[in-house]
Amino acid sequence: MTTDPQTESVQRIRPILGILGVLLGASLATFFGRLLSVGAPDLRGALRLDFDSASWIGTTYNMGLMFIGPFSVYLGGLLGPRRVLLVSATIFTLLCIVMPFAGHLSVLLFLLAAAGMTAGTFYPLTLSFILRNLPQSYLHLGIAAYAADIVITTHMAHSYEGWLMEALSWHWIFWTIALLTPIMIALVVFGIPPQPMPKPTPGQPSPSWRGFLFFSLGAALLYGAMDQGQRLDWWRSGTFVAMVVSGSFLILAAAVRHFSKPNPLINFPFLRRRNTVLLAFIIMIFRFVLLSGVVLVPSYLTAIRGYRPEQVGPVLLWLAIPEFLAGLLAIYLLGRVDSRLIMAAGFATVAIAALMDSHITSVWAGNSFDLSQIVLAMGEGFAFNGMVGTIVLDLINSGSMNKGPDVLSFSGFFQTIRLFGGELGATFIQFFLHSRQVFHGDLLSADIQGGSTPVIERAHILTSGMHAQSATQDIALGRAATLFGGSIRQQAFTLSIMDAFTLIACVATASLLIIACLHGLKVGFRQIIATSAKPAS
């Protein structure tokens, strides 16, 4: 029996279009979140919001992402990925069109939460669709595309937002996504064929939405509490306490419900495997060390050097090139060496880059980070591709690739860990920077009060410099004191950034111990590629 060549061509093209569609969706969800974060000052000014009110813009969107991450497992198992992606992408497009016209902050926050809940379906369904529709011999190429997709998007936000504010307006933070999402919809329409509604396995209970709702809502509340914790002053805030207590209660209720009435879409024993748990910790560590380039460098350049987003952008954007090339090399090596070695090499390189940046001083500018950022980009390229490759191989070795609940559970679990771990790291680094800045500020102030010789000389120089611009001695002393206080704050912040780079280097090094504890995998990409290359008998 022969197969029509045209039919074979369609069968080959369709999964490729579908994979491009889900990759674009994941990229858009990430890009929109980064634009909201980078463009927060411009949005605050355009919408005439105070700092506290505007801080909820990014938080609300990310809470929506967090809510829908676990719930996507239920939706994907109940309706199938095609239906979920098409409906979510359509709603997401409409929301991005109307959000600039929201006349009140509460309306905007409601729309952002809905946008997060629609865009959040793109993440877990992306990995699960790639795993189930790409031939295993090409899985390493799918990993490369997924990694490049996330990495390039992360580094583009500063440059693009700066260009938007110069050439267009803040409205295009939303409308850019509204223009690109229909492309994703078209790719999904033509790339993912219609499928009948999934049916539960005979003898199993029908899936229940209640446990997913409890867990998703609880996780979203905890996420919001962590994101706002530093601003709300943690346990001194009634809002923070209420979010933590209610979120914890809902997650506990979800756990009690699952173990009393198991949901067929979740396979907890599968998620309790040793490698799965260790890989979850590695994901959280990767999200933490990623803050080196995404948070620490921009924070330093903005606070100390006074850079605008369009100036910070070039410092980060070009790093996508070495990171992409390192990712390609990592994918090439995945077919030849153990993925754990590639991942370990990546984290070790990230530690070296962080140690290089730990020598930062208050005179560094954007080009001072060039060499360390190249090393960091190479390390992230190796670490991310090696990490995702190990996750995929772990799923293959478990024998669960053809088990829908296992793949959905796997993708939903790692999506939840990715978001929750990323927020945990970002919250901790904010707390760490603040506490270390206060610590160094107190030490520097103590030196001033002690009246050391260098301090006295510096005070005399500043006072003398202010005499020409001041009518009286008291005014000159006041201006000198203001400059001196600014210098102390600048130095204290620089020292806190230095400590944060040192911390990231230590955490990246500690990840090597976790990687060493991973079980060896019997089937690697070398065996998968070799098996697929054999002609069928």
From TrEMBL:
- What keywords appear on the UniProt entry? Membrane, Transmembrane, Transmembrane helix, Transport
InterPro entries recorded: MFS, MFS_dom, MFS_trans_sf
Q: Which SUPFAM superfamilies match?
A: MFS general substrate transporter
Gene Ontology cellular component annotations, sorted alphabetically: membrane
- State whether keyword Phosphoprotein applies: no
Q: Name one Pfam family in it.
A: MFS_1
Lineage, top-rank taxon, reads: Bacteria
* Single GO MF descriptor: transmembrane transporter activity
Which residue ranges does UniProt annotate as crossing the membrane? 16-36, 56-77, 84-102, 108-131, 138-160, 172-192, 208-226, 238-256, 277-303, 315-334, 341-365, 371-396, 408-433, 500-521
Residue stretches making up the Major facilitator superfamily (MFS) profile domain: 13-523
Subcellular localization: Membrane
Bilayer disposition of the protein: Multi-pass membrane protein
PANTHER family on file:
MAJOR FACILITATOR SUPERFAMILY MULTIDRUG TRANSPORTER MFSC
Q: What is this protein called?
A: DHA2 family multidrug resistance protein
The protein's organism comes out as: Tunturiibacter lichenicola
Organism classification, top ranks? Answer: Bacteria, Pseudomonadati, Acidobacteriota, Terriglobia, Terriglobales
